[in-house]
Amino acid sequence: xxxxxxxxxxxxxxxxxxxxxxxxxxxxxxxxxxxxxxxxxxxxxxxxxxxxxxxxxxxxxxxxxxxxxxxxxxxxxxxxxxxxxxxxxxxxxxxxxxxxxxxxxxxxxxxxxxxxxxxxxxxxxxxxxxxxxxxxxxxxxxxxxxxxxxxxxxxxxxxxxxxxxxxxxxxxxxxxxxxxxxxxxxxxxxxxxxxxxxxxxxxxxxxxxxxxxxxxxxxxxxxxxxxxxxxxxxxxxxxxxxxxxxxxxxxxxxxxx
Amino acid sequence: xxxxxxxxxxxxxxxxxxxxxxxxxxxxxxxxxxxxxxxxxxxxxxxxxxxxxxxxxxxxxxxxxxxxxxxxxxxxxxxxxxxxxxxxxxxxxxxxxxxxxxxxxxxxxxxxxxxxxxxxxxxxxxxxxxxxxxxxxxxxxxxxxxxxxxxxxxxxxxxxxxxxxxxxxxxxxxxxxxxxxxxxxxxxxxxxxxxxxxxxxxxxxxxxxxxxxxxxxxxxxxxxxxxxxxxxxxxxxxxxxxxxxxxxxxxxx
Lengths: 257, 253
Ligand SMILES: Nc1ncnc2c1ncn2[C@@H]1O[C@H](COP(=O)(O)OP(=O)(O)OP(=O)(O)O)[C@@H](O)[C@H]1O
Ligand SMILES: [Mg+2]
Hints:
The complex is a heterodimer.
Chain A: H1 6-33, H2 40-51, H3 55-78, H4 86-124, H5 127-133, H6 138-176, H7 181-191, H8 194-220, H9 225-256
Chain B: E1 5-14, E2 17-27, E3 32-36, H1 43-51, E4 58-63, E5 66-67, H2 73-80, E6 83-86, H3 98-102, H4 104-108, H5 114-127, H6 144-156, E7 162-166, H7 174-191, E8 194-199, H8 202-208, E9 211-216, E10 219-225, H9 235-242
Parallel strand pairs in B: 3-8, 3-9, 6-7, 7-8
Antiparallel strand pairs in B: 1-2, 1-4, 4-5, 9-10
Bound molecules: adenosine-5'-triphosphate and magnesium ion (MG).
């Protein structure tokens, strides 16, 4: 007699065990960011790679989303004769939600997969073992610079995204919806509160940590050659996205309280 | 004389299979031990346990008589500094130029100045007969034999007390393989270190070994001076060195 609940229970236990392993890994990764030696050169390279080279992707995403948001809010607002709220809602939506979430999702694709593939390849070709035999801790040399770089540069990227997103909304509002440019900008900045920006930046830092840590976790634990590395990259993207969306809700709810 | 490195009763289970089932090995300073055995018999796992890259389920790894498996992390890390390892696929860091690969531990673990580290890397390259003009290329641009040389230079640069070699000659043509064997013998003699190599290349084993041990079914089934291997009196050893499919060892394929 086969117990129909057995596979479900087994699956659930496996998921819980995986969460536990990831939490332990994330704790060790975070710890190694704060204990010497810190490899400044590695950090600099990663900050360039993760932060600077993500600017085009982030900028393009932000300008189109800002523009589309302005159009949608205009149409929706028109139903209540509330078209004038476009600048307020655009800036609110972008700083509190869309800026960090979209930047997080774009970087989950670009950065998580990249980290997982790079570290995964190093794992399956024994480069990680080699590093250990050369008296260098892979957590400090490989993982900490990536985690630090992602955690620190994502808030900067989100600030840029916020500005470009508001610009996108501004362009559409002024050029095709007939808003006055000066009034639009005044409404934007008068309405914005510092806590909106802070929430967005806190989210960004947390998402940056998630992106790098999930990628590193998948890569570090990959096995089985090229196939394993490919699987690690895919799992990293999916895992980072799901985690970002879940944590986004938790952080938003926490700040709204 | 106490052994430089001694493994006592090492057991390791992986994916539900008892890969190592009580491995005992020891190697004295200045001596070269070669472990032979079939594919999948756990030779690499044995090395990984000795190097601390894998934690054995049971047993002890003694370095100069002290058990490294029960040491606090920092002390163990200090003991591990005496180790040098040449990996099967060389395991060079492909993001770094050859000289920085070789000098990696000097720069990042011993905090030697880059200019000095580079000088010592080039000196190590000369020792393994790797021309200095390859110092600034990436490892992917090197041939397999040159990668092995670079890996060897990386393993010896900090003058280790114990050198480990995981299949140093697999994937190389016989002439290059023999050149690598010569280098290994030369380096071990020059550093006067203990060496543990694993291989299934008998020509290589005969050349670099003072002693040979055979690993089968998770245990050392025979061990003796390299010169006596042809008269081992052990059917498994005889089958292995003759390379016959029939005998006490079943081919897995
Ligand atoms: N990290 C690991 N996780 C799970 N199983 C492993 C791991 N490493 C090795 N094994 C298993 O342990 C067994 C012995 O592997 P090992 O690599 O030590 O063999 P080997 O004697 O070095 O063989 P070869 O000569 O082919 O290199 C194999 O069955 C392998 O599947
Ligand atoms: Mg092996």
